[in-house]
Amino acid sequence: MLLLSREDISKVFTMRDAIEANKRAFRLLVEGKCDVPLRTNLQAPAQEGCFLFMPAYVEDMETASLKIVNVFPHNIDQGLPALSAQVMLIDGKTGVVESMMDGGYVTQLRTGAASGAAFDILAKKECRLGALIGTGGQGAAQLEAMLEARNLEEVRICGLHYERTKAFTEQMQEAMKHYGARLIPVMTPERAVEGADLIVTATPAEKPVFDGTKIKKGATVSCIGSYQPHMQEIDPVVLTRASKIYFDSKEAVLSEAGDILIPLEDGTITKEDFTGDLGNVLRGEITGRENDEEIIVFKSVGVAVQDLVAAREIYDKAVKAGIGTVWNC
User: Fold this and answer.
1) For the whole prediction, is pTM greater than 0.85?
2) From 56's CA, which of 82, 100, 183, 305 has a CA 20 to 30 Å away?
3) Beta sheet of 220-223, edge-to-edge order
4) Nearest CA to 193 among 218, 169, 164, 226?
């Protein structure tokens, strides 16, 4: 078994690699070429946390995977990551586990890359301003994904605590200086989204985090934070203003995402407002953006085939480069 750390993965797998891997995963999903049961979600009420188990199998790739991801939001108060995870890559011919890798980093990359893929496919070609709401475990990857997808001049960043937001922004400005964008910390989500062409919300909020009337025409919004029925970070007004609403997986979103379930239940939107999955756009089965005035929403909860495709490519690249630690278990 090959053990791959965050550092190992970063040597062989870039955000652009992750974006292209996500596109392949989304195609596999709509083509019905992967077996991806809805994830098992075990609640830990006392900690307001949960344990998630996400299996996947693609016969054509002769590969299976299992991701174990645990989300405990109060860990941040103890200086611990809110999300911890491992990904197991499994040989589909023998059932042997080929690799165990840092699932937290794989999750960050592939979730960031979901936004990156959505922006690649759905955003206007000319984008100048970005907005990131949420500076937790997903913040860095989401920021890099939007910078990779479009040549932005400026990204405004808003987190729950302004001092943390400033520290995060300073760190990211140095880490991502090669993209050439100005990164600016702001105190309110409304300031962040004002005039923004690309918007990412990456929070575990239970109430909308910004005023949906502030979104300008032509914006593309990627909402990736809410993953349970009681969570709702996006203002339903955005959904009513949107020309099109896309998903990573409509089935997965409708099983657990409060951002869609809550406005569906209260009648703010209906299923007729949904456009389809991103994989359908990639296959040319439905249209993407048709003009620069459309507001487009992409809602993602994550599907295990994203982890599988990413893990397969990471493993193959690592083996070729001689990266990682062999564990003879």
Assistant:
1) yes
2) 82
3) 182-185, 154-158, 129-133, 198-201, 220-223, 296-299, 244-247, 276-277
4) 218
Question: What CA–CA distance (Å, rounded) separates 140 from 168?
Answer: 9
Q: Which of 148, 160, 161, 243 is nearest to 204 (CA)?
A: 160
The structure tokens listed for 272 are 């007729």
Contact 129/152 with Cβ under 8 angstroms? Answer: yes
Tokens of 181: 């964008």
pLDDT in tens, 283-303: 999 999 999 999 999 999 999
Q: Is the pLDDT of residue 204 over 80?
A: yes
Measure the CA–CA gap between 72 and 129, rounded to whole angstroms: 32
DSSP structural state of residue 35: B
Condensed to tens digits (0 to 9), the pLDDT of residues 121-162 reads: 999 999 999 999 999 888 999 999 999 999 999 999 999 999
Contacts of 275 (CB under 8 A, 6+ apart): 244, 245, 246, 286
Q: Give the tokens for residue 76.
A: 């941040």
| pLDDT for residue 83 is more than 90 | no
Q: Do residues 145 and 132 make contact, with C-beta atoms less than 8 angstroms apart?
A: no
In terms of Cα–Cα distance, which of 157, 147, 145 is closest to 306?
Answer: 145
- CA 228 to CA 236: how far, in whole Å? 16
The tokens for 141 are 């990857």
pLDDT tens track for 162-187: 999 999 999 999 999 999 999 999 99
- For 153, the token pair is 């001049």
**For residue 274, which amino acid is it?**
F
Contact assessment for residue 237 and residue 266, using Cβ atoms and an 8 Å cutoff: no
Q: What is the mean pLDDT of the chain?
A: 95
